[in-house]
Amino acid sequence: MQLIPMMPELREKPFNDERYIFEPKIDGHRLMIRVKNGIAQLCSRSGIDVTMQYPELWRVPVVGAADVLLDGVAAFFDESAGSFSSEALRERMRMRKSMDIRIASVHSPVHYFAFDILEWNGKDLRGLPLKQRKQLLEKAMDDNRSYHRMFALDAEGKRLYEAIRSEGVDGIIAKRLDSIYAGGRSENWLTVHKYRYAQVRIAGYRKHGFGWLLEREGQRIGIVEAGVPGPHRQAFQGTAQAILTGEDRDYVYVKPIIEAKIRFLSRTSSGTVRNPEFVRFVG
């Protein structure tokens, strides 16, 4: 299944616009699912066949035994926590033994959220506007325990953005209703991340390649690489030489007295921050 998925560009702030629909951005495994003669084939964003990884998704609730090609995301919802868990999903993606996968598909099943339909009974739908493809998606498949059509809100991006509270929902995606499905990145789809913020201390830096070790309340919580301007890097390096405490093969350690504000998407169960970005120094 060699088809380049459509990808969003980044936008910093949410907005309202009647030309768009807005969907939650669920942190999951982007999958294209082709159903032909009742048999499902699942492929990752890079085109790798992952059909055997998700047995619970083999029966797609298409209407009238249609042949379809769906675009969407597989995600794990932790019912006990009431939120999506990207960490649990990554554990599932790493499974290789068929028995382990079978057991997980029963006790910890993933859900698939379909947000687009690209083919229907042999007809290529990519040249149709998104509004029309969404209407066809409603006709082509039903919802069940494993499959869901992605929720979308017309025009009111700010409202959806403010409503997001769940772990594993990274923000919103804005999609122009008149956009065709074009492979690769497109400004017709826009991602607005729902960032969280924290004040941290810098406890060291990488010897090879750039990265600052982050610490909060005495616990290592990750490495920040993104968003640090050149002058800030130089200022830190100048100060760091006076507060060195040691080193190993990979890192040089400093007294954690330099504070910074970061933003990030979520935390793992161990407290590590995902996708941290530097905002500014504090103090």
Automatic annotation (TrEMBL):
GO terms, molecular function: ATP binding; DNA ligase (ATP) activity
Sequence ranges assigned to domain ATP-dependent DNA ligase family profile in this UniProt record: 103-194
A single GO BP: DNA recombination
Keyword annotations from UniProtKB, A to Z: Ligase
InterPro entries assigned: ATP-dep_DNA_ligase, DNA_ligase_ATP-dep_cent
PROSITE patterns found in the cross-reference section: DNA_LIGASE_A3
PANTHER family associated with the record: DNA LIGASE 1, DNA LIGASE 1/3 FAMILY MEMBER
Family the entry assigns: Belongs to the ATP-dependent DNA ligase family.
This protein's name: ATP-dependent DNA ligase
